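Chain A, query sequence.
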Amino acid sequence: MTAEPASPERLSEVLRLCTVLSDRALDALITGGAVPADQAVALAKAARLLQDYDVEWPPLLTHVMHELADKDGRSVPEPAGEASEGVDLHGLTRFFASFRKDKEQQ
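Chain A, predicted structure.
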């Protein structure tokens, strides 16, 4: 399977959907509920996609990813952008791997 470059329109739609889903996840976190695993996985995959295309994460996505990581005791690297020294770029990969393991066990 060959990956096609993402068009600006598609990336724009990913950003929009990311923000909507992040809002729902944040609502769940604020009310003390759990974020459904499929939503957390979708957010993680979207974050990775945006990172792969060097698109800055929406602020709400960044906030939710940090909340989910804090709740789970993991760290999340900063969104795509200027890479600074000492940034753990493998942290997000480990974060995604835990979601994959959780989903496979269900």
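The chain has four helices and no strands. The two ends are 28 Å apart (CA to CA).
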